[in-house]
Design goal:
This protein is an alpha/beta fold. 46% of the residues lie in helices and 13% in strands. The chain folds into 3 domains: 168 residues, Rossmann fold (3-Layer(aba) Sandwich), CATH 3.40.50.300; 222 residues, P-loop containing nucleotide triphosphate hydrolases (Rossmann fold, 3-Layer(aba) Sandwich); 166 residues, Sec63 N-terminal domain-like fold. The chain has an 8-stranded mixed β-sheet, sandwiched between helices. It has a 7-stranded mixed β-sheet with strand order 10-9-17-14-11-13-12, with helices on both faces.
Length: 645
Amino acid sequence: MPHEFTLDKFQQEAIDYARQNNSVIVSAPTGAGKTLIAEYIINDCIKNNKGVIYTAPIKALSNQKFRDFSKKYPGKVGILTGDVSINRNAPILIMTTEIFRNAILVDPEEFTHRDWLIFDEIHYLADIERGTVWEEAIILLPPHMKMLALSATIPNIDQFVEWFKKVHKFPLIAVKEKTRPVPLHFYFQCNNEIFPNLEALKNSGYLKDRIKEYHHNYYTHIRPNRMNTLIEYLKNNNALPCLYFSFSRRRCEELAEEVGYFNFLNNEEQNKMINLFNELVKKFDISSSPHVNYLYPLIKKGIAYHHAGLLPTLKEIVEQLFTTGLIKLIFTTETFALGINMPARTVVFDAMSKFYGRYHGFLKTRDFYQMAGRAGRRGIDKEGNVFMKINPCHIDITSLADIIHGSYEPIESQLNSCYATILNLYKIMGNKIFDIYPQSFHFHQANAFEQKEVLGLLKRKVSLLTDLRYIIEGGISWKADLASKVYSFELQIGELFDNGFLDSLDEEELFVTICALTYEPRKGEKKPKLNKKVKRLKQELNKFLGGIHKQERTFRIYPLSKNFYFHLSEAATAWIRGTEFERINRFCEIDEGEIVRYFRMSIQVLKEIYSSKTISENLKIRISHVLSKVNRDAVDAEKQLRQEI
């Protein structure tokens, strides 16, 4: 059996509905035990010889599920994430949602033997940048497949169900759970004091009226919140292990270093930790990573940090160490909260606001509970502790109360179909493509004006694709076949191919070009110095891109196709020439985890180009050579996954 304790009422309900051949959407707080429902369905599928797809929003979560399920169902698990393809015909296939959406557009027949689709974290449908993928995947869901959707609390779940029933004939039943099995207790650090609840903080007067009081210099005597005050409190009140969330990678490292004089381990635990860390570092051959040296003195005291700038293997090592219980304090960015099953006794928030891509604002209630929900381990803790560090200059009492006690934000459609989706649909439907928009969640939610706007944008995209001869009489063109494979970079690749530019590139230029296409600089990142060869390449590529942008502006299509950024060009050149990964940091100022991420994304794009029947044999050979040279060592995602931790 996949559980060790009595099922909660909502878990049993969801499992029963699923076994009665209903699709099910479960809305429950983080930490309530939604994954257990998925495990029952997977178990049933294995027992009945049926296939199941498990989708996750990010590769890290897909990888973790692959490892977890591989232990539970040896030999029955596969994974498909774009840069990794292992055992794709296995009865349990784990995919990122994007890859699933792409696959059902290209070859829905591939899923005829799969009965269930499990969507983890389906509230991602509201994500501004990637939410459209979830919506498209649901619209295109093959009619024979049933769906289990798992989500943090959704206030408008009934609206979602109503929409789903309009799109699909099979029934969808909502199961709602509001109570957490382990209740949360909220604490606040303000003026370097610890307050046991919001009322006590309110009565202290520190958050009275921040605007008025600020202008009267009320805050001149406010004391900063000291880390040692908070950590001593956690230590003395048996509140460890602790997940400390910060929204900056650098700050995670700085905070870990700041508290490095604490030691949470006795001699025996310390020896065990050192041996395990050294063993894993040796096994994965990453001793040359600078972060290994930074982490070592912290790890042996029960402290660590974890963020996207670390090598993927090093992140996995930190996660593994955390599961042993020997890491008592880990400083991490919010990605650690996304589905990764690493609960702790306590969660700390370094700040109550973050950058939301387009603006800086207070935490949304759903995001707050996604992280806060990691506090409190079922069967171990009576309650979870959530500490918030409060600066009166940065937040007022009303906003703070709204985050903690406010309603969860409803799921709102972010539908904005990319060119590849349109081309793949056009190939199947022709001009009937416009009939698909009324099936969307956006259409279901929007008013008449908003509906007209989105339909207008879709029509303008089709007009542009027709004008550029991607869409032709009777279907789509040869270059459209290529563009339809390369999600997010369709017009750049399509036009470079059409002008013979892709065929003119040597292997190094090809890899540098694709890296420039995938790379997205971080805020405030310096522009790199480029050599003559790359400068010339940049000029030519930007000329192509200028033409694409001109066309998009003419057809009033926004956002414009992505720019080329050459921050990785030196590192990419060094890598394809065979330079060892430990030396790659000399060629750029980008975190090693980021370098791996963008090299892997580039590998995925190259594989997508290779899969098109449009490209020449010479280009195929060149791509094969590039892939064999760059998909190695730390960059080889498949090798990492095949290694057992």
